[in-house]
Structures are given as C-alpha cells and as structure tokens.
C-alpha cells in the first residue's frame, strides 16, 4: 500500500489533521491478507517539514498542543507495531517531526538530494520528541549534534550513520523502493509479522533477556505452518507455498 503526504504547499507539515489522516491510513485494512508492505512518500520538494508551527503559535492552547504531540507519538509508535514492514521513500527535505517519521520507519530509501535535520533549537522549540526516534537510529553524538545545531545531514551522511537504509539517484528511487517491496512480498506475512514484533521487543532488552525471549520465538516460529513449509521447501529444493 502507498501512503502519500500530499500537502506540498504547506511542505507536508504534520498538522493535527494530517496526523489523524496518517494514523487512519496506516490502520486501514491492516489485517487484510493482501497487505504486505506500506510505503510512505510525499509530493513536492519537501518530504515533511514537521509540525505545523501555526498550530503551536499560541502559548495558551495547552490542550491542543498536547493533542498534537500525543497523536504524533501514537503514529510514530504505531509504525513499529504494525504487522507489516513500513518503508519511507524520501525525495527531499525531512525536518523535525518529518525526520522523526523517517527514523520511525522500518526501512528508509532516500534520493541523493534528500536532507535530514532537527532545526527546532533555532526557533526555540527543541526537537525533544523527534530526539526519541533519532536517538534510537543514530549514534548518540551524531543525534545530539543534529539536535544542538539544527544543521542537516546529507543523504550520504544519513546513510553512513544509519538513519536511512539506501541512497540512490532520484530517477532510481521508485525502482529501488519497489525492488525492496517486492522482495518483502515473497516472504510469509505471518513469519514477517512475528519477526518484526520480536525485533522491536528484543532491541530494548539486555543481551541475556533478548536471547531468552528470541529463543522461545524461534521455537514458536517452528509451530507456524509457514515455518514448517519453508523448511520443507528448502529441503525439497522448491519454492515455498505460503498460507496466504
């Protein structure tokens, strides 16, 4: 499924309505057997500029501000809770909560012209919520330099530090994203769902706890029909026939 941020006049800002739409699109028909991967892209030269600052201009509207940041956190964590991989296809600038969105996706493919920044410090609103995703994707000192200075990373720097998975020429962006998507579609949906959920659970654990948990998951994986089918197909030198 393709989700396109389509408000280029406002630099695809994550207004409250945009965040609500994004949440709805991510959850739409999520249990469908046909849904195998979600790709998030954007119209225009800016992938996403972050929160709509006009919504945050009044210091008195605390309730509205809380709602904006709460739904944003919900969307970012939802991406990792979904049973299918989510790919960010980035062709342009991703700043603040837009950079947070890229960092929150499972995979990110970027064009060479893309840039990534958390410039909130420059306008007196430190990117504290984007820092949650950034600090879990980048080395601490790289994340903090971005947060303290607001200076952007180039696409190649983002690749070097692990914020994105691949960088390609702009004219190859669609092709590369589809290549990854099609490869994902060749695997069992139930196995991928189990693997994704387990990855995010184990990554916050200490080493012993992580191995204890994943050891049990490997055993559970073998009880899945697709787990046995995949092994049998490998032994018999044939392509597996997944259960959906």
From TrEMBL:
Subcellular location per the Swiss-Prot or TrEMBL entry: Mitochondrion
Primary role: May play a role in fatty acid biosynthesis and insulin sensitivity.
An example Gene Ontology biological process: fatty acid metabolic process
InterPro entries associated with the record: ClpP/crotonase-like_dom_sf, Enoyl-CoA_hydra/iso, Enoyl-CoA_hydra_C, Mitochondrial_ECH-domain
Keyword Lipid metabolism: yes
Record keyword Lipid metabolism present: yes
PANTHER family: ENOYL-COA HYDRATASE DOMAIN-CONTAINING PROTEIN 3, MITOCHONDRIAL, PTHR43602
Main location: mitochondrion
Entry's family note: Belongs to the enoyl-CoA hydratase/isomerase family.
GO cellular-component term (any): mitochondrion
Protein name stated in the entry: Enoyl-CoA hydratase domain-containing protein 3, mitochondrial
Pfam family, one: ECH_1
Keyword terms, alphabetized: Fatty acid metabolism, Lipid metabolism, Mitochondrion, Transit peptide
GO molecular function term, any single one: hydro-lyase activity
